[in-house]
Amino acid sequence: AQTVTQSQPEMSVQEAETVTLSCTYDTSESDYYLFWYKQPPSRQMILVIRQEAYKQQNATENRFSVNFQKAAKSFSLKISDSQLGDAAMYFCAYRAGGGNKLTFGTGTQLKVEL
Amino acid sequence: NAGVTQTPKFRVLKTGQSMTLLCAQDMNHEYMYWYRQDPGMGLRLIHYSVGEGTTAKGEVPDGYNVSRLKKQNFLLGLESAAPSQTSVYFCASSYPPWGASNQPQHFGDGTRLSIL
Fold first, then answer.
1. Chain pair A-B, CB pairs under 8 angstroms
2. Nearest-CA neighbor of B88 among B8, B31, B14?
3. Per-residue model confidence as pLDDT tens digits over A40-69
4. Which of A102, A106, A108, A109 to mutate to test the interface with B (most CBs of B within 10 A)?
5. Residue B100 above 60 pLDDT?
6. Chain B residue with minimal CA distance to A34?
């Protein structure tokens, strides 16, 4: 069974600084997809960024980028120029290629300080 | 853009009561999902549906039933609520995972359910 591990329950970052959230996963599949979701206090689940395992290039969405290390089964999220609105719970998620189930990590609570 | 709409947003039940959570999506998605979110445990899949008239068990299906009579709606039922079912419930929908398989799941805003 696939598992997703987020080993940092909480992280803090100063406004305008950079922070990296860690995620590791375990799978025997070669085709899969990885996602980072953001959950602010409003409880919405908002897609931040996605990565296809077959792509070597790391995904980037504005201030958000990932460091995808397939051999190490690591998928970290880097937030640059952190803003107060980035404060939220961040979930890493995995889906097997052709699969229909998302497996989530336990989340990392990110605090942004002035 | 409504997306995925869940009703109700909050509900308090007594042990043994029944209720149904409604999820509606207007994106013509084939797949729909119900998750529960508990502190420190992330989201866990309860049941899902790959199309109208179909349902399947997820990771934590016990104590819940679902129905997908219409493509746009996915209902989650608790026949006899238990305190262990106190949680935040999320509905999600997506296109089928083949083809453009990086298509994400779109989530509703959640339903906070408390069982006393």
1. 56
2. B8
3. 988 889 999 999 999 889 999 999 999 999
4. A102
5. no
6. B102
